Amino acid sequence: MTLRFYDTATATVRDFQPVHPGEARLYYCGATVQGMPHIGHVRSALVFDLLARWLAFRGLRVTTVRNVTDIDDKILANAAASFAPDYAGDHPREPWWALAYRFEQVFTAAYDAIGIARPTYEPRATGHVPEMHALIQRLVDAGHAYPAPDGSGDVYFDVRSWERYGELTHQSVEDMQAAPDADPRGKRDPRDFALWKGHKEGEPATARWDSPWGPGRPGWHLECSAMAAKYLGEHFDIHGGGLDLRFPHHENELAQSAAAGQRFASLWLHNGMVTYAGEKMSKSVGNTVSPAEMLAEARPLAVRYYLGQAHYRSVLDYRPGSLAEATAAVERVEAFLRAARTSGLDLARSPEDVPPGFADAMDDDLNVPQALAVLHESVRAGNSALAAGEDAAGPARAVAAMAEVLGLSGLMDLDGGGSGAAEHAALDVLVRSLLAQREQARAAKDWGRADAIRDELAAAGVVVRDGAEGSSWALA
Q1: Strand positions, DSSP E, 1-71
Q2: What is the SS3 assignment for 61?
Q3: What is the rounded CA–CA span in Å between residue 227 and residue 124?
Q4: Within 13 Å, how many C-alpha atoms sit on residue 309's CB side?
Q5: Strand partners, 242
Q6: What is the number of other CB atoms lying within 10 angstroms of the CB of residue 358?
Q7: 107-152 per-position pLDDT tens digit
Q8: Pairing mode of beta strands 316-318, 279-280
């Protein structure tokens, strides 16, 4: 058995050799909780959920870290936008930290609904400021970072001081655009990026921390480097995330960590984007799709199958009818297992029941499409055996084992009586999405829209209860 993965840094498929024998340590970028999730967020989390499951299947002790960016320019901007014109006082209706926490819960509900396992650790950026200060100081001491000379309190990474800058994305500094994360007035080079952002007039007093360089808050790239090293060590196995994060986020993570003397990640894995009918998803175009919308159209089982069916490095194209096709495909698997159980077959499985073809595909850069081909061939063989009155125990155990590895089993209904908890989880995602929209309408004093959402939920048998800690729901 040899696990092999495509490493973005070297642009080659490489053998997986754990830094610590018998272990696999994985860090992947989670959400910046500024607003509602879209299916690109969920696809990325699902890719690394599948990776963690397969590493565990191969006998490794897996530690996963998925961060939450809960302080960021966009979070502050979205919170500031919740000011009501006639609101008395100098504080927004919803503080930035409350907005971040609210959307964090929506992300979590979406992950839970399709069976994405909780990571071993899910650290928030705001809880790790001391570790960020320590990393900045290492970089300043090593000559790779400098405080801005303009008194702004900003601290920048000096990209010209690190000759390996650009190694992840195979670029030269001269070909890069200026870093847009801070005013360039205090930068030695426009491409220098912010490690620490000095507090600015008009920003909430709660959005700043004391530091040796003045009050402020961390830069986005710094957060992941500090948290990855804390939970996984300064040399770990895999760093993952969406392809859109390769530059500048992951490039800057690698540069600042390596410049501080860390070996950081051995492998870099990036999942492909999600498009809509061949076009890039964009809020301005209006072709984005949310997890709630997908779960309104199909069962969590089908949504998980759809989001995980393509190779993780490929583009996943969403089209009308995509979920119907996924539903038909995965329910054939479910129907076979239900028929096998009804026939009295024992679906208890062991790792040995996973077919070699499936295992070979998953070992080869997590080739889920090829693995699914083995799954469906086993379903066909099992159905043929059942129809002929022959022994279908082998195919049944194989299908059950593969469905377990892919995270599908927990979302299946093998009793034919409804999916129970899975259905409730899906409903919770939908209702929370509507409640978030209602809260935004109330913040904007759009009482008509807020009342319409409440009436819509009531008509569906959902009772909304407003309280000091926000809105909750229950079935009537």
Answers
A1: 4-7, 12-15, 23-28, 61-66
A2: strand
A3: 9
A4: 20
A5: 271
A6: 24
A7: 999 999 999 999 999 999 999 999 999 999 999 999 999 999 999 9
A8: unpaired
Residue 422: predicted pLDDT: 53
What phi and psi values does residue 153 have, to the nearest 5 degrees?
A: 90, 0
Distance linking the first and last C-alpha atoms of the chain: 53
Count of Cβ atoms closer than 10 Å to residue 156 Cβ: 26
Q: Is residue 60 within 8 Å of residue 17, measured between CB atoms?
A: no
Q: b/e string for 408-422 if b means 16 or more Cβ within 10 A?
A: bbbbbbbeeeebeeb
Beta-carbon count within 10 A of 85 CB: 6
Q: How many Cα atoms sit within 13 Å of 13 on the Cβ side?
A: 10
The structure tokens 């062991």 sit at 350
Q: What would the pLDDT profile of 341-391 be if each residue is shown by its tens digit?
A: 999 999 999 999 999 999 999 999 999 999 999 999 999 999 999 999 999
pLDDT of res. 463: 79
Residues pairing with 462 in the sheet: 475
Tell me the two tokens of residue 323: 């979920």
Round to whole Å and give the CA distance between 45 and 304: 11
Question: Where would I find the H helices in 20-179?
Answer: 39-57, 73-80, 96-113, 129-141
Distance of CA 153 to the CA centre of its chain: 32
Q: How many residues does the chain have?
A: 476
Closest C-alpha to 146, from 208, 195, 191 = 195
Residue 184: cis peptide before it, omega within 30 degrees of 0 = no
| Count of beta carbons in the 10 Å neighbourhood of residue 458 | 12
Task: State how far the Cα of 30 lies from the Cα of 242, in Å rounded to an integer.
Answer: 10
244-259: per-residue pLDDT in tens?
999 999 999 999 999 9
Dihedral of CA atoms 70, 72, 78, 84 in degrees, nearest 10, equals 90
Query: Tokens in use for 205?
Result: 């007093």
Helix axes 251-259, 220-232, angle to 10 degrees: 60
Per-residue HEC secondary structure of 336-351 comes to: HHHHHHHCCCCCCCCH
Which position has the token pair 């801005």?
148
Q: How far apart are CA 379 and CA 467, in angstroms?
A: 50
- Are the C-beta atoms of residues 407 and 115 closer than 8 Å to each other? yes
- State the Cα torsion 419-421-422-423 to the nearest 10°: 70
SS3 assignment, position 458: helix
The distance between the two most distant Cα atoms of the chain, rounded to a whole number of Å, is 82
Q: Is the peptide bond before 355 cis (omega within 30 degrees of 0)?
A: no
Burial of 204 (0-12, 13-18, 19+ CB in 10 A): middle
How would you class 21 by CB atoms within 10 Å of its CB: exposed for 0-12, middle for 13-18, buried for 19 or more? Answer: exposed
Q: Is the pLDDT of residue 288 over 70?
A: yes
Q: How far is CA 444 from CA 96, 224, 430, 473, in A?
A: 16, 34, 22, 22
